[in-house]
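Proteins fold reproducibly. Look at a concrete instance:
___
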Amino acid sequence: MDGDWDEVGRITFPVPGSPDYPRPASTVAFDTSHELLWVGSERGRVTSFYGTEMQRYTSFRSHPSTDGPVRQFLFHDKGVIVLGPRSVHLALRRGPAVWDIRHEKMTDLRCMSFTSKGTSEIIVAGCQDIMFVIDVNKGEITRQVPAENYYTIMKKSRHICAATQSGSVDMLDPLTLKVVKSWQAHVAYINDMDAQNDFIVTCGGSLKQQAAQTYMLDPYVNVFDLKNMISMSPIPFPPLAAYVRMHPRMLTTSIVVSQQGQMHVVDLMNPNTSNVRYANILTFLNMVEIAGSGEALAMVDSECNIHLWGSPSKIHFADFAQPIELADPVQPPPEMDWDAPFSTAGMPFYREVLLSSWPSNIVSDLGAPPVQLDPSFLATLKQMEWGWYGRNTRGLLRNQVEDTRGRHRGANALKAPKFLSEKARESMSSGLNPPAEIRQASETLLSSNDLASLKGEAPAMYRNFEIKYSKFGVDDFDFRYYNSTRYAGLENHIVNSYANSLLQVMHYTPLLRNLALQHAATACLASPCLLCELGYVFDMLQKAEGSTCQATNMFKALSSSPQAGPLGLLEEEENKALSLTMMSQSLSRYLLEHITEAYRSILPASTTLEQELFGLPEPPKPEELLTRMLATPAVVSIRCMNCRSESPRPGTTHVIDLMYPAQKLVGRVKMPVARTTFSQVLMSSVERETTTKGWCSRCQRYQTLQTRKTTHSAPAVLTINAAVSSPEQRRFWATPGWLPEEVGIIVDSGQFFCYEEEALRFHLQRGAHNIAVYSLIGMVVNVDSGGQPQNPHLVAMVNVAHSEPTAPGESKWHLFNDFSVQPVSTAEALTFNAAWKMPSVLIYQLKAANNKSNMEWKEKLDTSILFNDLAPPSQPERTYQVLTPQTERPGPDTIIALDTEFVSLKQPEIQMNSDGERETIRPMSHALARVSVVRGQGEMEGVPFIDDYIAIKEPIVDYLTLYSGITPGDLDPRTSPHNLVTLKIAYKKLWVLLNLGCKFLGHGLKQDFRVINIQVPKAQVIDTIELFYLKSRLRRLSLAFLAWYLLKEDIQLETHDSIEDARTALKLYRKFLEFEDAGILEAMLQDIYKAGRETNFKPQRKEDQVVQRTDTPPIPMEPPTTPARKAAAASGQTLGSGGFAMPAWTPGKGSPLKE
């Protein structure tokens, strides 16, 4: 307390003009983040006073006057928490209520405190047997805790310190809320208490005369050491201590006040010295409170006065006070020249949604248009006395009312497409052209010439699309209905698919895509490795050519990352405290940091592009390359404003969080921010200067610290988090043309400069500085209409022109809304709406790197995984033989037979709709359990070289043994006799074969590829289910039926075996080639379908046939010899090219079976 402390203000409570007569305040508290003093009355009214002049700011009633006085205040970012005897109330600082909690067991509440969860949770107690724990964010009672005592005062320090009615203090654990220690502070009662840092100080009383039962205040202050859990020597105070407060800044200083207004400022470590002051009061004091800054003291006397003490030159309430919200000043109407024409007045322009623009969910329709009946239908009706009747030809059910209002509502909405199976049946009967329907859907979304981003609500193209499921699963959904472009979308029915938009933006960033593909082509087998998974996803999107992909394996790897859960990156964690915007921003930072770590672990396949772009030597150091590409190297200087000492520390970052200019407060009015460009905001965010409270090692105390960041260079890929959190920041983005497509950056002598538009063109023409130009690749956009009509979700706006092999010369912006992909104009892409469309993550890339790619990774693809047997030596038998590197090199002419087996991770979710039909809400979720790949050519044709069982970490609900042949022991590392590998190893083998150009042969490979999560171009797929298929029959044939009819073999007798199925598909392909060479393919297909109809498309097996199924037999150490083939040939059968015995057939001209 400085020497010039004195009374700086005094007001009467309630203030003059109030309907209530004067009463002493029941409680008083200083706001922790605003320059406000809060006062509670005996009748439940809360009043706040602004600044040292104590001008009334707000006044509202927190609970009915019959409940009693206001007991206590706590302060939260959302507002002020008010405690009454029977309720807890949260209100905005402007007055409107946020929530109000009442409970039948709330009978006499006295005190409350924050818990171990900070300001998100409070505990409420009183003279009752139950304490309540309340979630502040939700406004709900989360639990009830039995109270060991009746509590009257609560203060939070190391523990929650609670004063009881009997003069003791219980120290509660902030987490468990159990009593850790109890301290008897006073004999009779505790009048006041405070706790801060390591000390508790109390004032109380004792019995003056035992018989008369009269009490008096004790002439001392008791002190308790929370660090050592011991009681310290009391501090004498002869005027009788009534109130005590710890100084917020001086850790060992307390202020003791008597009822007559005598104040002593005492050091707990040296109580013999004190500073004495006297308050100018005529009666006695009722309460005392000190501000969080330590620069203001409020006292309430019995004459209903509130005294404000402090230093006139330094007094303030909060250290970093936020501006309060005030009513906009009334602007005088402009003077008008009534002789001027009305057309000169102009029309207003609004940047915010008007209150008159009601959302569709609260707009009600009155009445409906009449039903429009077809005249031909009316002509068939017969008139009777009661009306007209006739045959129902309208296509509606009997007594069904037609929704005529729905025809006019949602004219621009996109209807769900029909299933592919339905379209196939209709195309056979009516000749429906699906491409025309897709074209019509695209025109529906893009029919309006106006900017969709300027509408009051999110239009159809921005809304969240859902996948519908038929009995055939997700493969029956028509994704092409939503995407007529050649750019692939991503499915959104997978957990953590909120990251789809960020993956799309990163995929179309050439440097990031090249970085991931170069790493995926190495010998990296680490699991999980998100950089490898990014490479696999980017490769899928490139090969898809407009088909829809899914990032299942990528999201599995993300879920298994140890840091993903604590950082709130997983949707399955149900972390509702984080919005999708915050999750995407955290994910961008996490992925870039993980990319950096993974890139250092192993040298990339090729760095030719980076060497050419940055002029680096060969081979470049990974650290230098990463710094030039992703990191923003900087030094953070921290300066103490007291002692002026400065300490530097490294401040390299991968993501820049935008920091917007704050509104200046002039008096009590918020002044509008001057026009600020995006480049200015980016520049201030990189070279950010902040002032915070922190520990100064030189001063050995908390001081005001100033931090400044000095940047040395800018990376080639600039990732920016928009960090939009307030209406003022939304207005920046809602300004037309605020986000530029190009920015120029100059880093000179530790200073960062950023330019756009005219300033950028000026510096480029001038050429005085080495300016780097960056192009906007894309951005993740949050579409949030406040939950109406749909929940928030993320979309991606991407300029795909920068990732094309050759620059098209113009921008090609596309909207990636999960699996819906639509071209949009540049104005549409760069226009935002404060009501529902805001950016989340932006990625700029060095313009010199646009349209650059390095495909050397395919030539330098590490294939060692195909030739190394990763099975442990302890495994006695092998069902496969790895490829021989000298003689078996896979390439574009190599045919391999593939089959997989799955297990179920989740059962399908099915509900009954209003028509009584079963409707699939969520299909069954599969996981890859076994992969078998068989040689399709050469001397060892039919011999598998991959037979991997996958170690699945997720809980398995059904092994599907009847269809997969997988048993629980096969996937258990402790008991499995098979080659058990991680999903990463099994996937990488197939990915290497894919990029070597091998042709994948199998039966029904579409489902295999979906579960594997791999995209194989059509030119590399040989699917026997399509080879033996007649489109006019609308039925595909099973592998078992084709093997029975064409090969005279019985397979899948009791269960499935992937090696057997792969070999059978290979034989069927050979048979197909024979039919094609002989020119009898069409006739044979007709015969096959004819035989299928006769047998119900099921193989006819002998009734007495009993086959004992066993595991796949181990292969011999040597391949079959020539005499073995002759023996097979002698049995009257023809040999395939790989030594398979097949039924006799005359090969046609050019057949590979003809010798």
